[in-house]
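Students often ask why we bother predicting the structure of a whole assembly rather than each chain alone. The short answer is interfaces. A chain on its own may look different once its partners are present, and contacts between molecules only exist in the joint model. In this exercise we take two input lines together and write out one structure for the complete complex. Read the inputs first and try to guess which parts will touch.
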Amino acid sequence: MAPPKHRRPGFSRKAQYGLFVTYVVAIAGTIVAALLLAISVADPAGFSALRATGAEITAPVARMFSNVRRSAQNMNATVAAYINAGSQNAALQKQAEVNRKKLIEAQALRVENARLRGLLKLSEEGESQVAVGRLISSTSSSTRRVATLSIGRNFGVERAQPVRGPSGLIGRVIETGPTTARILLVTDAENLVPVMRASDGLPAFSAGLGNGTVLIKPLNLGESPFKVGDVIVTSGNGGLYPPNIPFARVIKKTSDGALAIPYADPGNTPYAVVIRPYQGEARAAQQAVAPDGETKEVAE
Amino acid sequence: MKIPVTTIRLPTRPVREYESRFDREQSLLKMLAIPIASVAIASMITALPIFTKEPLLPPLGLLMFLSWRLMRPGLLPVWSGVPFGLMDDVFSGQPFGSAGLLWSLAMLFIEIIDSRAIWRDHLQDWVIAAILIAAVLMGGLWIAGMAHAAPDPAVLIPQIILSILLYPLAVRICARLDSWRLAT
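Now the answer. The structure tokens for the assembled complex follow.
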């Protein structure tokens, strides 16, 4: 394409100065942007009000599309259910048979557990939910894995509350707006979750890899004890995430840990439950000594 | 023949009381609003319920911005990378100021190229856009890594490839919007 005419302003002093000023403004603007960036790197929560405003503005459209998307998914499921009715019925009956046995076992275990807890005088700090919302968007073009929740401070959602879906842990709240909240997903590289293997309680840490999988690292050194198919649940260590929330399934064993896929898929979860931090009082005491923003959290 | 108006300038003649049938002026509002709104809306696409396991959605705001800049040189001023970038930062989830800095550097880079390679075709523009898209995405990862823990750079490869392949489509959309913008 032909070069634009403004590049050669001719003999007019005014035009020459005008062109010069645009370059000065451009370089000054770049420096201002670099300064803003330095501020937000030093204080990651600094511009959260601005981001919350952005989320509030786009939330109505996101909610509408989220509804459309959900009804389309429901329709698919309904149509598929009609087509698969016969085979599904047979399979479900077989499954119900198996589940009934397991339910009876679980009931017995629950009773035994309650009795043992009574003996040990452990006070039950149960999983208490704050509010239920939906995930309405995610940062799908950034390397940060952050999702937006459809509810915010209006429903009592606060920073550092865990969020779970029906199938497993989703993440934790990092910023709140009036009617939206931002959730750091478990697949983000910054989100470390204390976990354990469901079968034997082997303690481990999970760190997101940013590509939909998490890396499970056992606390003890040595060869990786994990096997493909192992079920990972949260351990409750650190007092943020309640224990025994389904977390991930191991898909690959690595030299010092395992790769796992989280059970909760943010794109496919019908609702998200915000729950109170496990052992909130202990955590509050810890926050008084070392607040989240000022010290780097190694583990929660 | 009338020279098509490619830069944003105020109308040079007094406003008529009646609508002229020939030699009409473009609507100033349309000329200004369409490029600005198209980049802004493209930046906001990420707020829709699109969930990806890895960063896969192309940076649509950046694609539109580069398309306008490379297709219509002289339309966007040199400093426009800063305001457009800062607006993108509000929605992208990157640390605030990241795109403001990177888009502005991209703008200055194109300005330097404009003074060296004066007559370019679409393919050369595509190569320039490809370099800038890859650089901005890698830079974004690097900046996010300064503020937070960052994943391996390899997760960006699918997104970079997809964005480079989508650039011609972004130019087509810009060209359509441009002909609507300049229609009288």
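Check your guess against this: The mean pLDDT of chain B is 87.
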